[in-house]
Amino acid sequence: MLGTYDTYDEAQAVVDRLARGEFPVKQVSIVGSDLRTVERVTGKMTYGRAALAGAASGAWFGLFLGLLLFIFSPSQNAILYVGAAVLIGAGFGMLFGIVSYALNRRRRDFTSIHQVIAGKYEIMVDPSLTVRAQELLARPVGE
């Protein structure tokens, strides 16, 4: 182990310094430990928000299918097929979003983002390269 840092940015800065010193960074790992899950609530879920989110994901899926159709059967009306696939996908996605929200309502009436955050970050280096890494980090910055 080369060192322990409180934030990922600090650990990343150390690895950047090693990389600038021509250290073989393929032999370096940043390991997060003391993990915890953080759920940030971003808002209240409503039928409108469920419909919009469903329509957006459905439109992306429709675009994907429409482009596949376009690639494997090129024709003069290909743009119309792609557009129709996006609209159909958005419609089904909206319907699925509303039904899904209606079934899960009262169990989860909010939207959120999940994150896994580490309490500390350790930089691990191949034991045969530890001394070289310590020497590089002991040099003043810019040398």
Could you describe the 3D structure shown?
This protein is α+β, with helices and mostly antiparallel strands and 143 residues long. The protein folds into two domains: 61 residues, 2-Layer Sandwich (Alpha-Beta Plaits), CATH 3.30.70; 69 residues, no CATH class. The chain is built from four helices and five strands. The protein has a three-stranded antiparallel sheet with strand order 1-5-2, covered by helices on one side. A two-stranded antiparallel ribbon has the order 3-4. The two termini are 24 Å apart. The model has no long low-confidence stretch (mean pLDDT 90).
Question: How would you summarize the topology of this molecule?
Answer:
Blueprint: E1 3-5, H1 8-20, E2 28-33, E3 36-44, H2 47-72, H3 78-104, E4 110-117, E5 120-125, H4 130-138
Helix pairs in contact: 2-3
